[in-house]
Amino acid sequence: MKLSKGHIGYQNRIQAVEKYLISGSLKEVAFSFNIHQRTLRRWIKLRQDGGNENLRRKKIYKRHLKRFAPLIEKNIVMLKEKQPSFTLSEARDILNENGIKISIKGIWCIWNRYNLMGFRRSDSQSNEKNEITPEMQDGLKKAEQALNEGDTRKAAQILNALPSCAGKEILKRIPDRLLALPRRVEKLDLTFGEIPFRKTMRKARNLRIKAQKKDLLYLSIRAGCSELDAMAWVENPEKQLVLVNRLLAKLRRKHEKRDNSNTILRFNLLVSEGIALGILGRIREALSCIRKCETICRRLSTSSFCSDIAALYSMIGSFKKARSWLLRSLEYAKAESKMVLHELRAGYFAKAGEYRNARKILKNLYIEKRGLKTLRKIIEAQCLIGEGKLQEAVKFANQALCQSKKETIHKYVATTSMICSCCLCAFGEEKKAKALIRSISPMLKKTRMGYDFLLTRILLGQDIVPKDATLSPELKVAFLLHKVSHSFKIKDYRKAFNYATSQQLMGLFHRLVLFFPGPVNKLLVKGKPTGLPKALLKLPVFQKNIPVYHLRFLGPVCIYRNGVRLRHEPTPMYASFLIHLSFNKKTILESLYENFWSHAKDPKGSLSHLLYSFRKYLKLPPNTLFIKSGFLNFKGYITTDYQFYEETITRAKALKRAGEWVFAKKEYLRAFRMFRGEPFRKMYDPWSEHMRRVILNELEGETMHFVKSCLEHDNEIRQKKRRTLSAKCRGGNMADAKKVLERVLKIIPNSEESQKLLETL
Predict the structure, then answer these.
(1) Cα atoms in the Cβ-side hemisphere of radius 13 Å centred on 648
(2) Which of 120, 469, 519, 719 has a beta carbon 3.0–4.6 Å from 465's, enabling a disulfide?
(3) CA separation (Å) from 277 to 84, 273, 472?
(4) Rounded distance between C-alpha atoms, residue 245 and residue 250, angstroms
(5) Are 596 and 718 contained in the same domain?
(6) Do 708 and 746 reside in the same domain of the chain?
(7) Band of residue 369 on the pLDDT scale cut at 50, 70, 90
(8) Does the model's pTM come out above 0.85?
(9) pLDDT at position 7, please?
(10) How far is CA 587 from each of CA 540, 590, 615, 625, 668, rounded to the nearest angstrom?
């Protein structure tokens, strides 16, 4: 039966194409469905190109008849752009005076369409989808089609004509030079965290200035918010505060006491201000800023708002409140942004001493976002300290510092140094731990990281802490523990313990108590509970009977037991065996036989004889060195000068990458001084010979890198034409480079590259 043309819908088109595919007769099928043959041929092609879905009728977007003309809409938009504090009623009154009759709802719709009714912060902008209007949907489809056809310029023109493209991934595929100013600001939000923060900051600053020159104040504030977010990562809090005040001045009206500025804009700027104040250690002012943000969030609760307040509380060490706000953020959050929030939650669990919960979250969490991979390593290192696994914690801390980006190094140098110093305290090396903290204090002071600087001052006990510092729960825990170390009163210890528990800072308490072990040891002697986990109480700092061996083999071998050098020098065999144990706590027996007794008739007997005399020489406790299931297991604690060398070199490289050459050079020189001669001397087993080559090659490579860095630094000074500083720095750099090369040539006399470089200096 023939169908009238009005009844040919989506299902009839499918039937017509399928009937043709069966019969193969174009004429018969077209006649039976009462359509032209060309129409059927077009349907067949559509089916071949995109399947049945391609047979649906495409709705052509048409601008609504009741909408104002584009020019009038532009004038309404410019009211908000030129004066961001304008309210809907004020805009209506101005438009009515100019002969444009429009309701408040109409103005709201236009401003909302152009994304002028507030925007989310850049760190969550790309993760939350904005409402897509038919106009935007049509424009995005046309732009996508143009891109697929290779016409990037046409796609850019289509997107530039749209009211808004906030959060649309298509912007990433178009070069900045083809995009209009609003689209470039929206693209900046999308790419936040994917490109270096310094580059983001420069881009945002340029866009802010351009928008300001064009009298687009709202857009300039939006670009300024992205600039502030990047500044928070770069650690430049004083400039951040200056920019916040400048943007707030644009947002507020002059000569008005009541602040009627845009709530969302004001919230974003207050968050940036609070972060800067937190970094500077101005706790009281930061708390005042947080309270204002909380007031706004009571009326406008969103996931990004709640997570911002959580970040502010964590900046001042109030992790209990940060945790509650993060849970609120997770309630509102969409699936795309929950991964980041869960990683932050794992960090709060680590601070609270809930290590299992932190590890459980991190187990199946994988995030590529800039800065979060490093944070994951830090969290794992903190958990490992609480579990008593010190050497693994140091390993993760060094990996975090290696992975950290240039703009985040200052913060992570402070955090990783704190982790390493905690581990040194756990080994009973309090002097070395405090020396490490003392070495990073000048850098913290120079970079205006006031909060971290206050913490180091408390741990070192160098001066009186400001009253504002006790407003931070994290700093107060450190202050209470420092007080306990002087009073030795059990009452004071309980007070610090209970406060840390109430503020969910028990993980921090576990790490900081390693700096002040006296009160804990007093409780252990009296047989009273300490409240600390068993893994922590088994550490050498609390168990004086547990030996800790420090091995120096970057030169003549020296062995120290609990800080006291062993009277008798070790034989080359003993030294090689102990170095081997410091690298491998669990070793396959076959590899030991092959390395030390490859030609022996009875390697098992040789190993047994060595273990007996070795235990006796080191005075090892029972069950410290034993054989089990084909492995040699060592359960003791060994630190080496090579481990400290690697940590120091890692720190030096990170500081150089961050542009802190003065501090980096000090770390380099400290590392090179650890070499007192040729390592593995008179040790001829294959493993020792291999490790000798590896370490000497590493030393030679790092020396070349250091000397070239000295020369590069001198060239930079010459180019800047700073004559006074040039002479001083050039002389110091060249002298240090020569000393290091001469020292290395004594250790590696046949290093041709070092010799040539020394001759050129």
Answers:
(1) 24
(2) 469
(3) 25, 6, 13
(4) 9
(5) no
(6) yes
(7) low
(8) no
(9) 47
(10) 24, 9, 17, 11, 33
